[in-house]
Fold this protein.
Amino acid sequence: MVTMIATAQKLDWRAWTLGWIGALISGGAGAIGVGFGAAVVDPEHFNVTNGGLHHLGEVMAISFVISGIVSMAKYLQIHPVPVPVTINMQGGDVTIKHGDSVPGAPE
């Protein structure tokens, strides 16, 4: 348990979390296009006047969630876990290196 916590502390959780949140937002941004597309295809039901804004909002919200989840899943397929980070503070200079293995982790 202690080794697991020590290993987890050496991973770049911030960049990994920002990556999948960015993928979620990026995928969901396609919902804007879906909303405009729905308004072009069926302007009677999906418009900004005469009560159509509610329907337009529903379509955009559902599209945002589905597209965002798909993009987030693609990101997690490529980056299932955060990359390890090595911080070297020797000689007064601080260097941060992203690597493929966690120093001190069991093989």
Summary: The two ends are 16 Å apart (CA to CA). The first strand starts at residue 85 and ends at 88.
